[in-house]
Amino acid sequence: MIIKTLRKEYRHDSLSRSDLSPDPFDQFIQWISLAIDQEIIEANAMTLATATKNGLPSSRTVLLKEVDAHGFIFYTNYQSRKGQEIEENPFGSITFYWKELEKQVCIDGKIEKISREKSTQYFHSRPRDSQIGAYTSKQGQELASREELLKTYLEHEKQFVGQTIPLPEYWGGYRLVPQNFIFWQGRENRLHDRFLYTMQKNGTWTIKRLSP
């Protein structure tokens, strides 16, 4: 099939200004809750875009693990490409797309590390195999073979037998603190509904409809 011939008409829903909560966090919770209720697989999957200090971008899919009053929390290896880019340039963007609902949310903001205490608490809530995996993977570095990876995993598995696995120094959580949100609802004839929330200096949010 030729890619340029692919077509889909969006007719699932609409979005009006009157539908929106004045608080974008509340609006986001409504949408992701709907996605979870609809049993969309990995409804918490999001595309995270970061960039170097020179503006060279990269993106990947990660999993949202928590939304608090300040932002969106995810966990990773601090020595990974994204971790290095966040260290150089703390601004990033996350995008959620629930194709079954024809809804998308794009969020831009500043990324900061969360506390070691909070990272430790989450790390120990993970399956033990995943904790060992955090020690096994030097994320993004060249690997000679999968056999080498599995050998390293077994070595760490033996190392931590009968003991609590400590949080690695190079692993933990980040929080993206939003500066703006865009809520997108697919509509027919590509005349989509798009609304922009922007944080003001006084701590309030403004809402504007955008052209699709």
Can you offer a commentary on this structure?
The chain has 212 residues and is of the alpha+beta class. It is 25% helix and 33% strand. It contains five helices and nine strands. Strands 1, 2, 3, 4, 5, 6, 7, 8 and 9 form a nine-stranded antiparallel sheet that branches. A hairpin with a 7-residue loop joins β7 and β8. The longest helix is centred in the N-terminal third of the chain and has 14 residues. It is globular. The protein starts with 23 loop residues before the first helix and ends with a strand. The model has no long low-confidence stretch (mean pLDDT 96).
Key traits:
212 residues, alpha+beta, 9-stranded antiparallel sheet, 33% strand, globular
Q: Note the overall shape.
A: globular
| N- to C-terminal distance | 28 Å
Give the total of beta strands.
9
Q: Report the mean per-residue pLDDT as an integer.
A: 96
Helix content: 25-40%
Gyration radius over CA? 20 Å
Which range does the strand content fall in? 25-35%
Query: Runs with pLDDT <50, length 5+?
Result: none
Written as H for each helix and E for each strand, in order along the chain, the element string is HEEEEHEEHHHEEE
Biggest sheet overview = 9 strands, antiparallel
Count every helix, treating DSSP H or I runs of 4 or more residues as helices. 5
| Class computed from helices, strands and strand pairing | alpha+beta
Provide a quick synopsis of the model.
This protein has 212 residues and is of the alpha+beta class.
Per-chain topology:
Elements: H1 24-37, E1 45-51, E2 57-63, E3 66-67, E4 72-77, H2 81-88, E5 91-98, E6 103-113, H3 116-123, H4 128-136, H5 146-159, E7 171-185, E8 193-199, E9 205-210
Antiparallel strand pairs: 1-2, 1-5, 3-4, 4-7, 5-6, 6-7, 7-8, 8-9
